[in-house]
């Protein structure tokens, strides 16, 4: 059994290059799934969601596209946090990290 660990300085870049082709499909899947987890009472809140995907230097960002997304994601004093974005990410088997 090996007792020594070797660090490759290029490891983060190598992993990024390997993962890059899967980022856009993952981001698009998240964007499509988010509205499915918005609770529906009258449909107004769900209709306000227009998710989009934006490409950055080496990644993609998913924007919920709703002016009210933060109320649904984090809740208010009078309403619980429903977390449609986090739930959509978790439902796809991905890890959610808010930045």
Describe the structure.
The protein has helices at 11-33, 44-47, 69-74, 84-91, and strands at 52-55, 60-63. The longest helix has 23 residues, at 11-33. The protein is mainly alpha-helical and 99 residues long. The protein is built from 4 helices and 2 strands.
Provide the fold topology.
Layout: H1 11-33, H2 44-47, E1 52-55, E2 60-63, H3 69-74, H4 84-91
Antiparallel strand pairs: 1-2
Low-confidence stretches: none
Overall mean pLDDT stands at 85
Strand order of the largest sheet: 1-2
The biggest beta sheet is recorded as:
2 strands, antiparallel
Helix-and-strand structural type = mainly alpha
Number of H- or I-type helical stretches: 4
**Strand segment count:** 2
The helix content is 40-55%
Give the H and E element order: HHEEHH
- Report how far the terminal alpha carbons are from each other: 38 Å
Fraction of residues in β-strands = 5-15%
Radius of gyration: 18 Å
Task: Name the shape in a single word.
Answer: elongated
Give descriptors for this structure.
mainly alpha; two-stranded antiparallel ribbon; 99 residues; 4 helices
Short description:
41% of the residues lie in helices and 8% in strands. The protein is mainly alpha-helical. It is elongated.
């Amino acid at each position: 059994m090996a007792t020594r660990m070797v660090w490759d300085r290029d490891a983060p870049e190598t992993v990024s290059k390997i993962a890059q082709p899967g980022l856009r499909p993952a981001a698009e899947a998240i964007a499509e799934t988010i509205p499915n987890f918005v609770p529906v009472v009258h449909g107004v809140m769900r209709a306000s969601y227009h998710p989009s995907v934006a490409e950055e230097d080496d990644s993609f960002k998913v924007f919920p596209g709703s002016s009210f997304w933060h109320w649904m994601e984090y809740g208010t004093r009078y309403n619980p946090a429903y977390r449609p974005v986090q739930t959509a990410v978790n439902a796809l088997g991905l890890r959610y990290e808010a930045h």
